[in-house]
Amino acid sequence: MPRPAVFCSVAVVLCLLLPELSSTGQADYTVYQLPGTSLQLLLEGSVTYHAGGNVTHQHPRGSLHFSAQDIQVLKSPTPQSVYAKRLREVRKLGDVNEVLELAKWALKNGMLEESKSLLSVAWKIDSSDERLVKLADLMRYINHSVPDNPEVEQHARQFVGSDRMVATRSKHFLLLHDANTATDEVTHKTRAEMRLELLEKVYESYLLTFAFEGVFLRPPNQPLEVVLFSRQADFMQMERRLGGSLKQTAGFYLPKENISMFYDSGTSEEFQVLMELDRQLVKLRETAKQARGPGAGQLIRFAKTIELLIDITRESEDVSTVSHEAIHHLAANTGVFPRDGAFVRWVHEGMASYFESAKLAKWSGVGVVDSSRISYYRVLEGDPHRGSLEFIVSDLGFLVETALGDQLPAYGQAWALTHFLFNEHFMELMQYYKKVGQLEEHEGDMTAAILKERSENLLSVFDECFGDRTKLEMEWRRYMRTLRTDMERLAENRAGGTGPTR
Protein backbone atom coordinates (compact mmCIF):
# COMPACT_ATOMS: atom_id res chain seq x y z
CA MET A 1 0.00 0.00 0.00
CA PRO A 2 1.43 3.41 -0.93
CA ARG A 3 2.19 5.62 2.05
CA PRO A 4 0.55 9.07 2.01
CA ALA A 5 2.61 11.99 3.29
CA VAL A 6 2.59 12.01 7.09
CA PHE A 7 2.24 15.78 7.57
CA CYS A 8 1.07 17.08 4.18
CA SER A 9 -0.12 20.49 3.06
CA VAL A 10 -3.73 19.43 2.67
CA ALA A 11 -6.11 19.00 5.58
CA VAL A 12 -5.95 15.56 7.18
CA VAL A 13 -8.48 14.40 9.75
CA LEU A 14 -6.91 12.47 12.62
CA CYS A 15 -9.50 10.96 14.98
CA LEU A 16 -8.42 9.92 18.47
CA LEU A 17 -10.94 7.96 20.52
CA LEU A 18 -10.68 7.70 24.28
CA PRO A 19 -11.90 4.51 25.93
CA GLU A 20 -13.37 6.29 28.94
CA LEU A 21 -16.93 7.62 28.77
CA SER A 22 -18.02 10.87 30.26
CA SER A 23 -20.83 10.67 32.76
CA THR A 24 -23.16 12.44 30.34
CA GLY A 25 -22.26 10.36 27.28
CA GLN A 26 -20.97 13.54 25.63
CA ALA A 27 -17.43 14.09 24.41
CA ASP A 28 -15.44 17.22 23.67
CA TYR A 29 -14.35 17.10 20.03
CA THR A 30 -11.34 19.34 19.68
CA VAL A 31 -10.52 20.68 16.23
CA TYR A 32 -6.91 21.86 16.24
CA GLN A 33 -5.27 23.79 13.42
CA LEU A 34 -1.49 23.33 13.53
CA PRO A 35 -0.11 26.89 13.37
CA GLY A 36 1.39 27.79 9.99
CA THR A 37 -0.14 24.77 8.21
CA SER A 38 -3.51 23.55 6.96
CA LEU A 39 -3.18 20.34 9.00
CA GLN A 40 -6.26 19.78 11.14
CA LEU A 41 -6.54 17.32 13.98
CA LEU A 42 -9.83 16.04 15.35
CA LEU A 43 -9.53 14.71 18.88
CA GLU A 44 -12.26 13.17 21.02
CA GLY A 45 -11.97 13.29 24.78
CA SER A 46 -12.13 15.81 27.60
CA VAL A 47 -10.89 19.39 27.52
CA THR A 48 -9.77 21.42 30.52
CA TYR A 49 -9.38 25.19 30.26
CA HIS A 50 -6.68 26.99 32.25
CA ALA A 51 -6.00 30.58 33.18
CA GLY A 52 -4.00 32.41 30.57
CA GLY A 53 -5.84 30.95 27.60
CA ASN A 54 -4.29 27.46 27.60
CA VAL A 55 -6.12 24.15 27.15
CA THR A 56 -5.27 20.55 28.06
CA HIS A 57 -6.67 17.62 26.11
CA GLN A 58 -6.40 14.19 27.75
CA HIS A 59 -5.32 11.30 25.51
CA PRO A 60 -4.45 7.69 26.46
CA ARG A 61 -0.83 8.35 25.46
CA GLY A 62 -0.54 11.55 27.50
CA SER A 63 -1.71 15.16 27.79
CA LEU A 64 -1.85 17.47 24.81
CA HIS A 65 -1.48 21.21 25.43
CA PHE A 66 -2.90 23.86 23.13
CA SER A 67 -3.63 27.55 23.08
CA ALA A 68 -7.37 28.14 23.29
CA GLN A 69 -7.23 30.40 20.26
CA ASP A 70 -5.87 27.54 18.12
CA ILE A 71 -8.74 25.14 18.78
CA GLN A 72 -12.46 24.80 18.32
CA VAL A 73 -14.38 22.59 20.75
CA LEU A 74 -17.62 20.85 19.76
CA LYS A 75 -19.76 18.50 21.82
CA SER A 76 -21.40 15.35 20.52
CA PRO A 77 -22.50 11.94 21.89
CA THR A 78 -19.76 9.33 22.00
CA PRO A 79 -20.22 6.12 19.97
CA GLN A 80 -20.19 4.23 23.27
CA SER A 81 -23.07 6.29 24.67
CA VAL A 82 -25.06 5.76 21.46
CA TYR A 83 -24.39 2.04 21.77
CA ALA A 84 -25.48 1.96 25.43
CA LYS A 85 -28.77 3.66 24.60
CA ARG A 86 -29.51 1.35 21.69
CA LEU A 87 -28.58 -1.70 23.77
CA ARG A 88 -31.24 -0.81 26.35
CA GLU A 89 -33.77 -0.48 23.53
CA VAL A 90 -33.00 -3.82 21.86
CA ARG A 91 -33.07 -5.64 25.19
CA LYS A 92 -36.61 -4.39 25.72
CA LEU A 93 -37.67 -5.39 22.21
CA GLY A 94 -36.33 -8.93 22.52
CA ASP A 95 -35.94 -9.19 18.73
CA VAL A 96 -32.99 -11.16 17.32
CA ASN A 97 -32.97 -9.05 14.15
CA GLU A 98 -32.64 -5.84 16.15
CA VAL A 99 -29.82 -7.30 18.25
CA LEU A 100 -27.89 -8.40 15.17
CA GLU A 101 -28.34 -5.00 13.54
CA LEU A 102 -26.84 -3.39 16.62
CA ALA A 103 -24.00 -5.93 16.53
CA LYS A 104 -23.28 -4.89 12.94
CA TRP A 105 -23.35 -1.22 13.92
CA ALA A 106 -20.95 -1.82 16.81
CA LEU A 107 -18.56 -3.73 14.56
CA LYS A 108 -18.53 -0.92 12.00
CA ASN A 109 -17.77 1.56 14.76
CA GLY A 110 -14.77 -0.31 16.12
CA MET A 111 -16.50 -1.87 19.13
CA LEU A 112 -15.55 -5.47 18.43
CA GLU A 113 -15.99 -6.79 21.97
CA GLU A 114 -19.43 -5.16 22.27
CA SER A 115 -20.41 -6.66 18.94
CA LYS A 116 -19.41 -10.15 20.05
CA SER A 117 -21.16 -9.78 23.41
CA LEU A 118 -24.43 -9.08 21.58
CA LEU A 119 -24.34 -12.58 20.13
CA SER A 120 -24.94 -13.90 23.65
CA VAL A 121 -27.86 -11.48 24.02
CA ALA A 122 -29.39 -12.76 20.79
CA TRP A 123 -28.76 -16.39 21.79
CA LYS A 124 -30.76 -15.94 24.98
CA ILE A 125 -33.67 -14.63 22.91
CA ASP A 126 -33.73 -17.50 20.40
CA SER A 127 -30.98 -20.12 20.39
CA SER A 128 -32.70 -21.99 17.55
CA ASP A 129 -32.16 -19.15 15.06
CA GLU A 130 -30.13 -20.62 12.20
CA ARG A 131 -27.98 -17.49 11.87
CA LEU A 132 -27.01 -17.68 15.53
CA VAL A 133 -26.15 -21.36 15.26
CA LYS A 134 -23.75 -20.57 12.42
CA LEU A 135 -22.36 -17.56 14.27
CA ALA A 136 -21.77 -19.72 17.34
CA ASP A 137 -19.78 -22.18 15.21
CA LEU A 138 -17.75 -19.29 13.80
CA MET A 139 -17.03 -17.90 17.26
CA ARG A 140 -15.83 -21.28 18.46
CA TYR A 141 -13.30 -21.24 15.64
CA ILE A 142 -12.30 -17.62 16.27
CA ASN A 143 -11.77 -18.28 19.98
CA HIS A 144 -9.43 -21.23 19.42
CA SER A 145 -5.92 -21.26 17.98
CA VAL A 146 -5.17 -22.99 14.71
CA PRO A 147 -2.67 -25.84 15.13
CA ASP A 148 1.06 -25.13 15.04
CA ASN A 149 2.76 -26.06 11.80
CA PRO A 150 6.59 -26.05 11.79
CA GLU A 151 6.56 -25.77 8.01
CA VAL A 152 4.89 -22.36 8.24
CA GLU A 153 7.73 -20.87 10.27
CA GLN A 154 10.32 -22.62 8.13
CA HIS A 155 8.75 -21.16 4.97
CA ALA A 156 8.76 -17.63 6.38
CA ARG A 157 12.39 -17.89 7.50
CA GLN A 158 13.53 -19.27 4.17
CA PHE A 159 11.80 -16.51 2.26
CA VAL A 160 13.19 -13.74 4.46
CA GLY A 161 16.58 -15.39 4.61
CA SER A 162 17.19 -14.85 8.31
CA ASP A 163 17.56 -17.24 11.22
CA ARG A 164 17.99 -14.39 13.69
CA MET A 165 14.40 -13.16 13.60
CA VAL A 166 12.09 -14.22 16.42
CA ALA A 167 8.86 -16.10 15.76
CA THR A 168 5.85 -15.19 17.91
CA ARG A 169 2.44 -16.86 17.65
CA SER A 170 -1.06 -15.60 18.24
CA LYS A 171 -4.23 -17.62 17.69
CA HIS A 172 -4.25 -17.22 13.92
CA PHE A 173 -0.93 -15.61 12.94
CA LEU A 174 2.78 -16.32 13.04
CA LEU A 175 4.82 -13.13 13.25
CA LEU A 176 8.50 -13.18 12.35
CA HIS A 177 10.18 -10.08 13.78
CA ASP A 178 13.48 -8.62 14.91
CA ALA A 179 14.26 -9.34 18.53
CA ASN A 180 13.06 -6.25 20.39
CA THR A 181 11.98 -6.61 24.00
CA ALA A 182 11.27 -2.89 24.56
CA THR A 183 7.70 -2.31 25.70
CA ASP A 184 5.36 0.54 24.90
CA GLU A 185 4.98 2.99 27.79
CA VAL A 186 1.18 2.95 27.59
CA THR A 187 0.23 -0.60 26.54
CA HIS A 188 3.22 -2.27 28.26
CA LYS A 189 3.48 -4.57 25.23
CA THR A 190 6.24 -5.05 22.69
CA ARG A 191 5.63 -3.85 19.14
CA ALA A 192 5.34 -7.49 18.04
CA GLU A 193 2.63 -8.10 20.64
CA MET A 194 0.82 -4.92 19.60
CA ARG A 195 0.91 -5.94 15.93
CA LEU A 196 -0.42 -9.42 16.67
CA GLU A 197 -3.22 -7.93 18.77
CA LEU A 198 -4.20 -5.68 15.86
CA LEU A 199 -4.03 -8.56 13.36
CA GLU A 200 -6.39 -10.60 15.51
CA LYS A 201 -8.85 -7.69 15.69
CA VAL A 202 -8.79 -7.33 11.91
CA TYR A 203 -9.18 -11.10 11.56
CA GLU A 204 -12.27 -11.26 13.77
CA SER A 205 -13.83 -8.11 12.32
CA TYR A 206 -13.33 -9.38 8.79
CA LEU A 207 -14.98 -12.76 9.37
CA LEU A 208 -17.85 -11.26 11.40
CA THR A 209 -18.55 -8.56 8.81
CA PHE A 210 -19.26 -11.19 6.18
CA ALA A 211 -21.08 -13.44 8.64
CA PHE A 212 -23.49 -10.67 9.64
CA GLU A 213 -24.41 -10.40 5.96
CA GLY A 214 -25.10 -14.14 5.77
CA VAL A 215 -21.80 -15.15 4.14
CA PHE A 216 -19.71 -17.54 6.25
CA LEU A 217 -16.22 -17.65 4.84
CA ARG A 218 -13.82 -20.57 5.09
CA PRO A 219 -11.35 -19.70 7.90
CA PRO A 220 -7.65 -20.55 7.32
CA ASN A 221 -6.57 -23.84 8.88
CA GLN A 222 -3.00 -22.82 9.66
CA PRO A 223 -1.22 -19.69 10.94
CA LEU A 224 -0.93 -16.82 8.47
CA GLU A 225 2.66 -15.70 7.94
CA VAL A 226 3.58 -12.09 8.69
CA VAL A 227 7.01 -10.43 8.84
CA LEU A 228 7.69 -7.21 10.75
CA PHE A 229 11.02 -5.48 10.21
CA SER A 230 12.17 -3.05 12.86
CA ARG A 231 14.01 -0.97 10.24
CA GLN A 232 12.82 0.36 6.91
CA ALA A 233 16.25 -0.37 5.40
CA ASP A 234 15.80 -4.11 5.95
CA PHE A 235 12.32 -3.95 4.47
CA MET A 236 13.63 -2.12 1.39
CA GLN A 237 16.12 -4.90 0.69
CA MET A 238 13.13 -6.90 -0.48
CA GLU A 239 12.82 -4.47 -3.41
CA ARG A 240 15.87 -5.88 -5.14
CA ARG A 241 14.76 -9.45 -4.56
CA LEU A 242 11.23 -8.89 -5.82
CA GLY A 243 12.25 -6.77 -8.78
CA GLY A 244 9.71 -4.04 -8.09
CA SER A 245 9.66 -0.49 -6.80
CA LEU A 246 8.65 -0.37 -3.14
CA LYS A 247 9.91 3.13 -2.38
CA GLN A 248 6.40 4.41 -1.68
CA THR A 249 5.23 1.19 -0.07
CA ALA A 250 4.62 0.75 3.63
CA GLY A 251 3.71 -2.94 3.41
CA PHE A 252 2.73 -5.61 0.94
CA TYR A 253 1.16 -9.05 0.58
CA LEU A 254 2.62 -11.66 -1.76
CA PRO A 255 -0.10 -14.08 -2.97
CA LYS A 256 2.33 -16.62 -4.41
CA GLU A 257 4.31 -16.89 -1.18
CA ASN A 258 1.22 -16.20 0.96
CA ILE A 259 3.10 -13.85 3.26
CA SER A 260 2.68 -10.22 4.40
CA MET A 261 5.52 -7.85 5.24
CA PHE A 262 5.69 -4.54 7.10
CA TYR A 263 8.21 -2.34 8.84
CA ASP A 264 8.15 0.00 11.81
CA SER A 265 7.03 3.31 10.30
CA GLY A 266 9.12 5.21 12.83
CA THR A 267 12.22 4.25 10.85
CA SER A 268 11.02 5.70 7.52
CA GLU A 269 12.61 8.77 5.93
CA GLU A 270 9.47 10.85 6.56
CA PHE A 271 9.48 10.02 10.25
CA GLN A 272 13.20 10.59 10.56
CA VAL A 273 12.54 14.19 9.54
CA LEU A 274 9.85 14.45 12.20
CA MET A 275 12.06 12.80 14.77
CA GLU A 276 14.80 15.33 14.05
CA LEU A 277 12.25 18.10 14.62
CA ASP A 278 11.31 16.39 17.87
CA ARG A 279 14.96 16.20 18.95
CA GLN A 280 15.40 19.92 18.29
CA LEU A 281 12.28 20.69 20.30
CA VAL A 282 13.53 18.55 23.17
CA LYS A 283 16.75 20.58 23.22
CA LEU A 284 14.75 23.82 23.25
CA ARG A 285 12.55 22.41 26.00
CA GLU A 286 15.55 21.56 28.18
CA THR A 287 17.06 24.98 27.54
CA ALA A 288 13.76 26.63 28.45
CA LYS A 289 13.58 24.60 31.67
CA GLN A 290 16.99 25.87 32.73
CA ALA A 291 16.45 29.47 31.68
CA ARG A 292 12.88 29.77 32.96
CA GLY A 293 12.50 32.94 30.94
CA PRO A 294 9.28 34.51 29.53
CA GLY A 295 7.32 31.97 27.50
CA ALA A 296 9.32 29.01 28.77
CA GLY A 297 6.26 27.18 30.05
CA GLN A 298 4.46 27.57 26.73
CA LEU A 299 7.48 26.30 24.79
CA ILE A 300 7.80 23.27 27.08
CA ARG A 301 4.13 22.37 26.65
CA PHE A 302 4.30 22.83 22.87
CA ALA A 303 7.38 20.60 22.62
CA LYS A 304 5.67 17.87 24.65
CA THR A 305 2.56 18.09 22.47
CA ILE A 306 4.52 17.79 19.21
CA GLU A 307 6.47 14.86 20.64
CA LEU A 308 3.22 13.10 21.56
CA LEU A 309 1.57 13.83 18.20
CA ILE A 310 4.56 12.32 16.39
CA ASP A 311 4.31 9.22 18.59
CA ILE A 312 0.58 8.89 17.93
CA THR A 313 0.99 9.46 14.19
CA ARG A 314 3.71 6.83 14.01
CA GLU A 315 1.45 4.27 15.62
CA SER A 316 -1.39 5.33 13.33
CA GLU A 317 0.73 4.72 10.22
CA ASP A 318 1.46 1.18 11.40
CA VAL A 319 -2.18 0.48 12.23
CA SER A 320 -3.36 1.73 8.84
CA THR A 321 -0.81 -0.30 6.87
CA VAL A 322 -1.19 -3.51 8.85
CA SER A 323 -5.00 -3.47 8.65
CA HIS A 324 -4.88 -2.81 4.88
CA GLU A 325 -2.45 -5.62 4.03
CA ALA A 326 -4.07 -8.03 6.49
CA ILE A 327 -7.27 -7.82 4.42
CA HIS A 328 -5.36 -8.78 1.27
CA HIS A 329 -3.96 -11.72 3.22
CA LEU A 330 -7.32 -12.78 4.63
CA ALA A 331 -9.21 -12.40 1.35
CA ALA A 332 -6.74 -14.72 -0.33
CA ASN A 333 -7.06 -17.35 2.42
CA THR A 334 -10.81 -17.40 3.00
CA GLY A 335 -12.02 -18.10 -0.53
CA VAL A 336 -12.95 -14.53 -1.48
CA PHE A 337 -10.08 -14.01 -3.94
CA PRO A 338 -8.21 -17.18 -4.99
CA ARG A 339 -4.45 -16.69 -4.73
CA ASP A 340 -3.96 -18.02 -8.25
CA GLY A 341 -6.85 -16.03 -9.74
CA ALA A 342 -6.77 -12.84 -11.78
CA PHE A 343 -5.51 -9.82 -9.87
CA VAL A 344 -8.07 -7.09 -10.56
CA ARG A 345 -6.48 -4.11 -8.88
CA TRP A 346 -9.56 -2.03 -8.07
CA VAL A 347 -11.32 -5.08 -6.59
CA HIS A 348 -8.48 -6.07 -4.27
CA GLU A 349 -7.45 -2.57 -3.25
CA GLY A 350 -11.05 -1.46 -2.88
CA MET A 351 -11.79 -4.15 -0.31
CA ALA A 352 -8.53 -3.59 1.57
CA SER A 353 -9.21 0.16 1.69
CA TYR A 354 -12.79 -0.42 2.85
CA PHE A 355 -11.58 -2.39 5.88
CA GLU A 356 -8.52 -0.22 6.46
CA SER A 357 -8.33 1.50 9.82
CA ALA A 358 -8.45 5.26 9.31
CA LYS A 359 -8.57 6.59 12.86
CA LEU A 360 -5.44 7.40 14.73
CA ALA A 361 -3.54 4.71 16.61
CA LYS A 362 -6.35 2.18 17.02
CA TRP A 363 -8.58 -0.23 15.12
CA SER A 364 -11.48 2.00 14.16
CA GLY A 365 -13.97 -0.43 12.66
CA VAL A 366 -15.18 -1.27 9.17
CA GLY A 367 -16.13 1.11 6.38
CA VAL A 368 -14.77 4.27 8.00
CA VAL A 369 -15.19 7.39 5.86
CA ASP A 370 -11.55 8.40 5.55
CA SER A 371 -10.93 12.03 4.61
CA SER A 372 -8.10 11.21 2.20
CA ARG A 373 -10.03 8.51 0.32
CA ILE A 374 -13.22 10.51 -0.06
CA SER A 375 -11.30 13.66 -1.03
CA TYR A 376 -9.76 11.88 -4.00
CA TYR A 377 -13.17 10.55 -5.00
CA ARG A 378 -14.69 14.03 -4.86
CA VAL A 379 -11.88 15.55 -6.94
CA LEU A 380 -12.52 13.04 -9.73
CA GLU A 381 -16.30 12.82 -9.37
CA GLY A 382 -16.90 15.35 -12.15
CA ASP A 383 -14.24 13.96 -14.48
CA PRO A 384 -16.17 12.25 -17.31
CA HIS A 385 -13.31 9.84 -17.93
CA ARG A 386 -11.14 9.24 -14.83
CA GLY A 387 -14.15 9.51 -12.52
CA SER A 388 -16.49 7.24 -14.44
CA LEU A 389 -17.74 3.87 -13.27
CA GLU A 390 -16.56 2.33 -16.54
CA PHE A 391 -13.01 3.59 -15.99
CA ILE A 392 -12.83 2.07 -12.50
CA VAL A 393 -14.42 -1.28 -13.35
CA SER A 394 -12.24 -1.74 -16.45
CA ASP A 395 -9.29 -1.58 -13.98
CA LEU A 396 -7.51 1.13 -15.95
CA GLY A 397 -7.48 3.53 -12.99
CA PHE A 398 -4.33 2.28 -11.29
CA LEU A 399 -2.51 2.00 -14.61
CA VAL A 400 -3.31 5.58 -15.63
CA GLU A 401 -2.81 7.14 -12.18
CA THR A 402 0.55 5.39 -11.84
CA ALA A 403 1.60 6.86 -15.19
CA LEU A 404 0.51 10.29 -13.89
CA GLY A 405 2.75 9.83 -10.85
CA ASP A 406 0.32 9.12 -7.98
CA GLN A 407 -1.77 6.01 -7.30
CA LEU A 408 -3.76 7.56 -4.42
CA PRO A 409 -6.59 8.87 -6.68
CA ALA A 410 -7.13 5.29 -7.90
CA TYR A 411 -7.26 4.06 -4.31
CA GLY A 412 -9.89 6.71 -3.56
CA GLN A 413 -12.06 5.63 -6.48
CA ALA A 414 -11.74 1.93 -5.64
CA TRP A 415 -12.59 2.64 -1.99
CA ALA A 416 -15.65 4.71 -2.95
CA LEU A 417 -17.14 2.12 -5.30
CA THR A 418 -16.46 -0.73 -2.87
CA HIS A 419 -18.03 1.24 0.00
CA PHE A 420 -21.20 1.68 -2.04
CA LEU A 421 -21.44 -1.90 -3.31
CA PHE A 422 -20.57 -3.44 0.07
CA ASN A 423 -23.38 -1.56 1.80
CA GLU A 424 -26.03 -1.40 -0.94
CA HIS A 425 -25.44 -4.43 -3.20
CA PHE A 426 -23.63 -6.94 -1.00
CA MET A 427 -24.89 -10.20 -2.52
CA GLU A 428 -24.32 -8.96 -6.07
CA LEU A 429 -20.80 -7.97 -5.01
CA MET A 430 -20.17 -11.46 -3.66
CA GLN A 431 -21.33 -12.91 -6.97
CA TYR A 432 -19.02 -10.50 -8.79
CA TYR A 433 -16.06 -11.43 -6.59
CA LYS A 434 -16.68 -15.09 -7.37
CA LYS A 435 -16.74 -14.50 -11.12
CA VAL A 436 -13.66 -12.29 -11.00
CA GLY A 437 -11.84 -15.04 -9.11
CA GLN A 438 -12.59 -17.43 -11.95
CA LEU A 439 -10.92 -15.23 -14.56
CA GLU A 440 -7.50 -16.29 -15.77
CA GLU A 441 -4.57 -14.01 -15.08
CA HIS A 442 -2.57 -12.95 -18.12
CA GLU A 443 1.12 -13.66 -17.80
CA GLY A 444 3.75 -11.41 -19.32
CA ASP A 445 3.59 -7.84 -20.59
CA MET A 446 0.23 -6.32 -21.41
CA THR A 447 -0.15 -5.08 -24.97
CA ALA A 448 -2.78 -2.50 -25.90
CA ALA A 449 -4.90 -5.24 -27.48
CA ILE A 450 -4.69 -7.44 -24.38
CA LEU A 451 -5.56 -4.51 -22.09
CA LYS A 452 -8.58 -3.69 -24.25
CA GLU A 453 -9.81 -7.29 -24.20
CA ARG A 454 -9.26 -7.55 -20.43
CA SER A 455 -11.15 -4.32 -19.79
CA GLU A 456 -14.07 -5.45 -21.93
CA ASN A 457 -14.22 -8.79 -20.09
CA LEU A 458 -14.24 -7.05 -16.71
CA LEU A 459 -17.05 -4.71 -17.80
CA SER A 460 -19.04 -7.66 -19.14
CA VAL A 461 -18.73 -9.58 -15.86
CA PHE A 462 -19.67 -6.45 -13.90
CA ASP A 463 -22.77 -5.83 -16.01
CA GLU A 464 -23.79 -9.46 -15.68
CA CYS A 465 -23.77 -9.13 -11.87
CA PHE A 466 -25.10 -5.59 -11.38
CA GLY A 467 -27.24 -4.89 -14.42
CA ASP A 468 -27.81 -1.40 -15.85
CA ARG A 469 -24.50 0.42 -15.35
CA THR A 470 -25.92 3.89 -15.96
CA LYS A 471 -28.61 3.41 -13.34
CA LEU A 472 -26.08 1.96 -10.90
CA GLU A 473 -23.72 4.90 -11.37
CA MET A 474 -26.49 7.38 -10.59
CA GLU A 475 -27.30 5.41 -7.44
CA TRP A 476 -23.60 5.39 -6.51
CA ARG A 477 -23.33 9.17 -6.84
CA ARG A 478 -26.36 9.69 -4.61
CA TYR A 479 -24.92 7.31 -2.03
CA MET A 480 -21.55 9.06 -1.97
CA ARG A 481 -23.21 12.39 -1.32
CA THR A 482 -24.53 10.98 1.96
CA LEU A 483 -21.07 10.01 3.27
CA ARG A 484 -19.41 12.34 5.74
CA THR A 485 -16.06 12.35 7.50
CA ASP A 486 -16.14 12.82 11.27
CA MET A 487 -15.06 16.42 10.84
CA GLU A 488 -17.90 17.14 8.41
CA ARG A 489 -20.45 15.33 10.56
CA LEU A 490 -19.55 17.37 13.63
CA ALA A 491 -19.62 20.62 11.66
CA GLU A 492 -23.09 19.80 10.29
CA ASN A 493 -24.40 18.85 13.72
CA ARG A 494 -23.18 22.14 15.14
CA ALA A 495 -24.87 24.03 12.30
CA GLY A 496 -28.08 22.11 12.89
CA GLY A 497 -27.94 20.21 9.63
CA THR A 498 -30.45 17.40 9.23
CA GLY A 499 -29.34 15.89 5.93
CA PRO A 500 -28.77 12.11 5.76
CA THR A 501 -25.24 11.03 6.61
CA ARG A 502 -23.46 7.70 7.00
UniProtKB/TrEMBL annotation:
Residues 318-436 form the DUF1570 domain. Keywords: Signal. Residues 1-27 form the signal peptide. The keyword Signal applies. This is DUF1570 domain-containing protein. It comes from Allorhodopirellula heiligendammensis.
